[in-house]
Queue: 4 jobs
Job 1
Amino acid sequence: MSEEVIYAHLKFPESRKTENIQELDRFEIKAPPVSSHVWRQIALTLTFLCLLLLIGLGPLGSIFYTTLKRETERLNTLQNVKEELQGNISLLLMTNLNKSENIRNLSITVQNLATKLCRELNRKEPGHKCKPCPNHWLWYKNNCYLFSETRQTWQDSATSCSSQNASLLQIKEKSTLEFVKSQKLYYYWLGLSPRQDDKNSGENIISSARLKRYMNDINKMFCGYIYATNIFYVPCTERHLLACEKKANPVKAESVLMSEDPDREM
């Protein structure tokens, strides 16, 4: 009897512990779930927020579309204005080019007329103020010529011409040759290349179209001079007459049109 009591006493705590665990398990399993009412409120809130966003996006989209349309129209207008301005500028440039060309042609025509008129005036009145050459210089074609009676060496003659922005006479064209022949020049230095000898003296004058070259020892060279229609070579240290040439200045139209001397007192 006593053994049964002891066994039952020993078994009871363990059994009691097991029952407690089982009760706890049943309690956890049978815990009530979260109420569906809370989830419904959350869903409604999110839906409401989405609707508000959609409602707000409508006016924003309308404003964006209106702004985009207005700016596009403004950009198109500016583009049209730009193209119109470019067209106007191109037209103005073409007009100015045409006007410039007309002015240039007119200027050339006036210059040619003034030159012809000045030649006629100078023919009737030698030394007329319209002449584009300095005093004592002869005007022929587009050049001015000076024939001096001063005798100098070839190098001194070249220096004298250079000091007047001119050079020794050179005959490069047949028209110039005819002019030189008409002047009947004798013993005038020419702007020919000095030589080391005086061979071929008496050669035809047309060969004097060669350009002048300065030599290091000019005193030992031979230089050419004109005698009527021929060229002769003599030592460059000899003294002969001076013949210079240079380009004529353009004829001033006002000097042709003015009949009175502008320096004369009124």
Job 2
Amino acid sequence: MMIRSSFAAVLLFLAFINHQCEQTVGSGLPGCPRNITPSGPQSANTPPLQRFQTYLLLLLGFCGFSLLLALLYNAIRKHIFKDFQNLDSTFDAGGRVTLSLTATTVATQLLWPADLLQSATVATKNGLAGPLWYSVGVVINVLLFPLLSVEVKTKAPGAKTYLQIIQARFGSVPHITYTIFALVTNVVITSCLVLAARATIRSLTADASDEMVVIILAIMFGSYSFVGGLGTTFYVSYFNASLIFVMLMILILNVFYLDNDYGGALGSIHKMYTALNCTVGPEGNEGRSFLTFRSEGSLIFGVIGIFLASSVTFCDQASWQSRIAAKPTQGVLGFLIAAFIWYAIPSTLATTTGMAYIAYSSEQGSYFLPESELNEGFVTPFITSRLLGETGAFMVLSMVSMALMSTGSGEVMAVSSILVYDIFQKYIRPYRRNLPPGHCILCGKSNKGNYQTGYQSDMDDGKDQSCSCVRVDHCEACKTDLSDTRLYGKAYQCPTHGRYRHYQDTLIRYKDWCIVWVSLLIVPFGLLVFTSGIDLNWAFTAGCVITIGFCPAVFLCIIWVKTTGIAITIGGIVGLISGIAVTLGLATTYDGGLSDFLTNTGQDYSVLGGCCTSFGVSLILIIIVSLCTHKIKQDEDADDEWMKTVAIRNPLQPWELTFIEDFPKVRDGYIPDHKDMGKRFRSAKIIALVGSLSGIIVLMFILPGIMSSLYVMTESQFTHWVRFCHVWTFIAAAFVIFAPPIQEIVSISRQYRRLNRLSQEASSTEISTSDSYARYDTTGL
């Protein structure tokens, strides 16, 4: 509420100022206007760090610290939550992550290194409008995700990947198709990560080699993921976000509020405004000014950003893992808060470093960096190291490295989860082959009768075909097995769960190897990307053309019961082909045509046309084909369809045990269906709908609309806008730094007290100290 109230007050104030005065570029100021000439082929950037400094910081500093966090997390899961040796906990961190930690992790994992680098590049090319539209394009999708998050947690609460939902509803052909393109999405994102890492390390480190860069990335991405799983990424993301905000505030102070040795360009808002107001901006900007939010290039980039963020938000398994790890209400609120946290970082950082670069360059009369280094994202490292020297170099290296660790480890875990759940467990070594949807994986019988609805499978023939397997938390044989740690990986004695428990141990070992091999493959993959000659700007924009056509299917298969498998298969493939064809066609209209492939296929209109075509064709085909092929005739058919996704369930860690506090009858064997889940978390759906729509209206329409009405900003307007961004950043920083550890300590202490209480009760009644609810009724992180 505080953020929104401050936001509304500032907008009204800016609107009032707009009616009072308008100003054109450089009016009344001596030496205006100045035109900044392009840089020559020689760069003015001098890397301030030596190789050993960078390598020691990354390997010993970040990797070492993250490994300590991984060990701490493992100790907590082992001694407090009692679910250390559990496959699902590796990929969902226990399934009940706190609100603040969810918000911080989501914001950090969506904060690509490209956001720290390319947002400043957009600012140097388009002025103040660049950071605004860049941030709007991404944050819209962050605000939409709560709607999907609550749908997934109520309709498929046991799913660990979104591909499992596709498989449960539509079968193998659509599942294989979307598994391939989920991995393609991971490839696109990883390409951006390795390019951003190389750009940062090369701009700050003398004689940095590409080989060492990818080796360091492999170690950074895989080390703590291997030791601690997804849960460690939450802890690491918290420290990453906190340090990023601290360093961002230091940078803000040095650019806008502290005197420095860079003449009239930097050191105060007035100095920066004077320099920017005297500088001729790009064509397409109002009055050719950098001080306007009316920018054709920024608007196009913002639209491209919406498609780009859609493809990486909805099609990237890494985005789903952190959302699946929280309960519906915490997930929704966490996402909404994450949107405002995320918005503060690239918008404020790009305004700070991008505008500082333009102002500083105007003093010299030419840009310091050549076009190639601008496209690689050198602006933020250059300005930071110029202002703060070696300290600034360490600071920006730390910021980008922390973003790399959060995002990169998420990609490693995403690929590993797909390999475990959607390839190995489904096609290579399934526990029970050809199991019909809605049937128990332990005995093969229908488990529909176990749910609240009580109806039987269509396969029932009058005999008792319903599953009668005892639930794991009521199984005395499992308690005996789990009390004997020597049995891990060996023959368990439980006749119901023993074989499957051994199977899960096999999957855990396979998971470990997946993380190792995925991390190692980053080395040859990164070298291949470097050899290809693509830059970060091309990978960041053109890559979304490949993935955006599959976004509508992911969205619709979760929210629309009439979606069919043939529809999403046809829509995704045809959308992909159409998008690529349009992109190539528009690229031929530029000078050089396809002979200058990387340049022309990365042009704004080429990417925009390809994205719009791919998304539009895919969406239309999926809707039309689904309407023609669906078999949903009545409410019972819809219930049967969603029961397929509700039945996604690990019998060793049933999803319903996570919701014991919400459904007390679960203790007696009750399993909620999708209707029960929808009713219980109806408030979460309302919060998601109202919060998402409100955020979109404010950030996509009200804010850009009012700022665009200011034409070319006066000094007073510029001052209020900059200070408003700074206040927003400081509020977000306070939440990120203080809220997660407080909630985490409370959560752990509550679980510790519960464990002690249950242990005492068990002792007083002479039962085993490994009480079932101590093991399964956990509060999570």
Job 3
Amino acid sequence: MGRWRNVLRTPLGLTATVFTVGVLALAVVAPILWTDEANAVDTSNILASPSAEHWAGTDNLGRDIFYRVLVATRLTVRLALSATALAVVVGLLIGTASFLLGRRAGRVVNAGVNIAVAFPGLLLALFFAVIFGVGATGAVLAIGLAGAPAFARLTQTLVASVAARDYVAAAQVAGVGRVRILLRHVLPNISEPLVVNATIGAGGALLSFAGLSFLGLGVQQPAYDWGRLLYDGIQAIYVNPAAALAPGAAVLVAGLAFNLFGESVAKGLGVQTIGVQSLPETATDRGEAPDVAHQTSATDSAPTDTVLDVRDLVVSFPGPDGPIRPVRGVSFSVRRGEAVGVVGESGSGKSLTALAVTRLVGDPGRVDAERLELLGADLLAEDTKAQRHLLGTSLAMVFQDPMTSFNPTQRIGGQLAEVARHHQGMNRKEALARAVDRLDAVRIDQPEQRAHQYPHEFSGGMRQRAMVGMGLMGEPALIVADEPTTALDVTVQQQVLDLLKAIREEDGVALVLISHDVTVVAEVCNRVLVMYAGRIVEDLPAADLATGARHPYTRALVAAVPDMDTDLDRPLAVIPGRPVDPADVPVGCAYAARCPLASARCREEDPPLESDSLGRRVACWHAGEPIALEIEDRELEDVKAR
């Protein structure tokens, strides 16, 4: 409410609010008070000029024009609001269709909206008026449908921006249906801009209605609105100009009141209004490039305790010169109770691999794999209720940014309870009790009180723990944590990591931990997958990460992390060059351009990911070869020179 009070604190906002309330109040009381005076016929006083008795004169039947303008307020406002409501409803249905219907049908709907928006609104209104015929009903349909494309475009943009948020992805991982996500998580978060633009749209609808009635296509006699009165007044403008000025002034004042009120609300709330230039930007792909790893498996069949089995995973996106594959054939498996870390630079494919596993790669991305199974269930199969139930109860996703992981308009307890109500058949009371229990399980103090608070009332660490608690509402067999300690201080990071470790050890839950920090992964995980340019280049035990890594890239990642033994007199170790662009992956080993061991063979042949006698895997033609000291020294000199 405080934000809405801001509207009244500016002179423009207060003035616009007073005028808008005045118009609405007049629409209610005017027909009650002055209908008889407005309809009184006086043939002895036809087309009279303004006087003390008739402030705006009389019409061709001697009826008082001023009273008729006042009484016409109700019909004018009612028709304008009806047309606005129709535009909003139809716009919402069309604007949310692409979210509900999926990729192909959504593209058709979007194309239709783009075509409709290209036509001027008044031209569309005239077109529909011809189709539906003259009269008030036809005019409502015409103006409402003419205004729907603008609301549909706005809704599409707002839905797309909210649909990219982590809390929507969390609901998808939980197996919540699209309709429920739309009603519970998307629409509440776009309601303010829709209300603001609907208010402005009401002003536009009022002006459009007056225009249609003035042209004879709207309200017909004996009914009358301001547009009809303006049409009648024009006929006698040379005899009594006030007959046209009075309804024209009413249209002007009411239209300005609605538009200025909407603009004031928009400024007070910080909301953008309808318009091609002011539309919010559509949310795009996540900041990090797709994540993927290519591995070969020792056997064709997965062990019986395998929770996640991924074989030859490929994620692709359309590009100007053909598909771009930021994930290029990743194969790995995770067993019950095992913790697998995924490390690599930004753009190596870590997060995209996680999104593919959790079925969160959106359009226009494409996920292909020889095998992608969770607890033996095919995740590439058609979306079904059983599959959503599996994802909602057996897989938990902990996202990178705890602030965007929860819906800001809903209480924490209600968001956790949604999973239990949707998948476990609990009623509201039982689900909330389960949510309180899960908040307690993730070590949040006063869980009953915290369950009734909003996300902004939680600290960053508490939000992250609550996100883990959401995943524990069911009985997850796998937790996928994508940079769960980002933006948290060191103490809170350790608390979150300890929590994940405790959950894994107590309940036998498998963990996939994605991180840039190799020291974090080495501390928490049993096994580490090192990714570069969309492939897994090394798979080794976490205990061997610091001293037993064989791939030059893995050793460079470890060396780039300073420790207590780092020589402060020498420059920090860096990896020369830049990561590979997924749209331009070179021939041969993708790391060759940055590798001090690269040979001609590295630049011509891409090394396969092969296993050694200990089961460790590495993709390198020079795996394990020492990096000459003089090469390291020369690189350090280059760093100093830069």
Job 4
Amino acid sequence: MWATENPHEFIETSLHPQKIGIWVAVSRRRIIGPIFFREVINGERYRGILRQALEQMHDDKLRFGYFQQDGAPAHTAAETVRYLEEFYGDRIISRGLWPSRTSDLTPLDYYLFGRIKNNIFKQRVHTLEDLEVTIHHEIESITPNELERVFECMKWRINLYLENEGGHFEHFL
């Protein structure tokens, strides 16, 4: 039997590659975070991340702002929702109040994560610690003027969504 590979050679690979998660919030004026995590997120861990995030927010964000999140189970767990209601009352946009799978309407998806990835991976990042530092620097480089433009774009995108009665609008972008 002929083969190009040596059948007696073993190449070990990790069953679960190294990875980190990132929690970040974006507002019209500033970015809150990033908060990094390496474990699988459940409701309790997510509330721990929220505690860290809320410490970074100004009182006006808590009294007048809205909190938007997706419908992930950790985000919509009853205890998590009760925790957020302490700060935001009925100003929580989550499952059922925001169209699902609408990355074209969410600044984190249509802007922030793509910008970060495009700039970070232009260079080699060798460790998770290097990745965290690079993400911090990239986020710190975003200007208030840039955030203002992002939110003007968000309003435009939402209006396109409404004009098309929730239908596809990407071809108008």
